[in-house]
Amino acid sequence: MKKTAFILLVFSLFSCLFFSSCSSFTFIQPVATLLNPPLYYPEYEDLVGAFERDVKTDNQFCIPYEGDFSSAIIVDNIDSDNDDEALIFYKNKNEKFAKLHYFEFINDEWVTVGDYNGYGNNVKSLSVNDLDNDGIGELIVIWETSGVQTGDVMSVYRKKAAENSYREIANEPCLISKIVDVDSDGFEDIFYICQNSSGASSQKVAKALKFSGDSVVIMGETKLDSNISSYVSVKTEKESENSPLKIYADALKGEKQMITELIYWDAEKSQLIAPWLDKETLTNSITLRHEPVECTDINNDGKIDIPIQILFTAEDEIKEPIGNERLYLTVWMNFNDGNAKVVSNTLINLSDGYYIKLTEEEVNSIGVRVYNQKNCWVIYLKNDYKNTEEAIFSVIRIDRKTWETENFESYISISENNEGVVCVYITETGKNLGITEKTIRNKIFNFS
Ligand SMILES: [Ca+2]
Ligand SMILES: [Ca+2]
Ligand SMILES: [Ca+2]
Ligand SMILES: [Ca+2]
């Protein structure tokens, strides 16, 4: 059976299960302890003056290092009244955890109206989202904890129209989160993944929080693959107005292996569902790839595609010396309209930052000799009858200096950056087979 046909079969079975019940290369940054500037913000002189007046000394500002706000001082009209408010993230040098200070601008003066203890030694992100559509933004703060297995802590703060300050209404352990309308009811919810802290279990769970009355409640949760070292990104998409929001979470298993979890809200069952988790083994193996390739819209049709990897180089071709190393075929799957379909077959060179798009036929007729030391792939045509391999073109990554000083006239540049150039050389055999610069430009793309 053809390689891609096998994958298609496996996924067809899974997509049937998924769709029969229903009509989102960045790694998480390490501790950003260096981001502690002194109390000097000239544009906020009055505010910093008020802060120094109201809060005891020995403080450092903390800058959220992810998300929409990359400043320790945020001045904005968060509650849609007539004046700005100010939020300041800081940490006292003698205390363990970062804090949040809240000012209102009243009668031409900054007035302290709130001060909140955080749960981590730094601030990872702040989001301001009006979750209950009352015109007043809720604050969702991710406090970074280092060395804690259950991850960071997410706090939600709310202010009602009749109140003059924010109240903390929830705090939850959190590995990754995204504010999205999980159940498509027109109100944004907080989707997040956490590790259940009960006992020795390392069970990963996807949850969603939504507003209910004066507080937030967990509207649903579903188990995920537990064998995850970290979550890399959350992407979302909606097929149509009436279809559920699909939430894709890319996660690393170990250092290099990656999977994509799919999570969505089943309106009929009023449940969060993770259809790709094998309920018996509690693992998601159908999306497993051996290299950290994230899901993305590979064919630019506006729909997210999931990469699946299978061995491309036949076992008997993997042999020393170098020239024939283990290589994976990355098959990109799309799950729209209730069907699983292959949208693209690619060979990805992650370290050199490009991919080669293969046709269904080329998947079986083309081979690659990998020369890692030389950042070079030689693409050849297999002739099984004659038992020959004929090189048709090579892709090579050349460092910037060499590219500028030596003669590469006969090479086609695919992508360039400050460090190097990815370029292609077409052999005489390749040219005789009709391979041109145009062929190459439709076949090899930047992948970073
Ligand atoms: Ca305001
Ligand atoms: Ca609100
Ligand atoms: Ca909602
Ligand atoms: Ca796509």
Explained architecture:
The protein has six helices and 27 strands. It has helices at 3-19, 45-54, 360-365, 400-405, 428-432, 437-441; strands at residues 59-61, 73-76, 85-92, 99-106, 109-117, 122-129, 138-144, 152-158, 167-174, 176-180, 189-195, 204-212, 215-224, 230-238, 245-253, 257-266, 271-273, 306-311, 328-334, 341-349, 354-358, 366-371, 376-383, 388-399, 412-416, 420-426, 444-446. It starts with a helix and ends with a strand. Strands 1, 2, 3, 4 and 5 form a five-stranded antiparallel β-sheet that branches. A five-stranded antiparallel β-sheet has the order 18-19-20-21-27. Helix content is 11%, strand content 43%. The radius of gyration is 26 Å and the shape is elongated. It is mainly beta and 448 residues long. Bound molecules: calcium ion (CA) (4 copies). Residues 130-132, 134, 136, 138 line the site of one calcium ion (CA).
Percent helix among the residues?
Answer: 10-25%
Reported for the largest beta sheet, the result is: 5 strands, antiparallel
In terms of DSSP E residues, the strand content is 35-45%
Give the CA-based shape: elongated
The multimeric state of the shown protein is single chain
Summing up helix and strand content along with how strands pair, one would put the structural category as mainly beta
Radius of gyration (Å): 26 Å
Summarize the structure.
It contains six helices and 27 strands. With 448 residues, it is mostly beta strands.
Secondary-structure topology with pairs:
Elements: H1 3-19, H2 45-54, E1 59-61, E2 73-76, E3 85-92, E4 99-106, E5 109-117, E6 122-129, E7 138-144, E8 152-158, E9 167-174, E10 176-180, E11 189-195, E12 204-212, E13 215-224, E14 230-238, E15 245-253, E16 257-266, E17 271-273, E18 306-311, E19 328-334, E20 341-349, E21 354-358, H3 360-365, E22 366-371, E23 376-383, E24 388-399, H4 400-405, E25 412-416, E26 420-426, H5 428-432, H6 437-441, E27 444-446
Antiparallel strand pairs: 1-3, 2-3, 3-4, 4-5, 6-7, 7-8, 8-9, 10-11, 11-12, 12-13, 14-15, 15-16, 16-17, 18-19, 19-20, 20-21, 21-27, 22-23, 23-24, 24-26, 25-26
The structure holds calcium ion (4 copies).
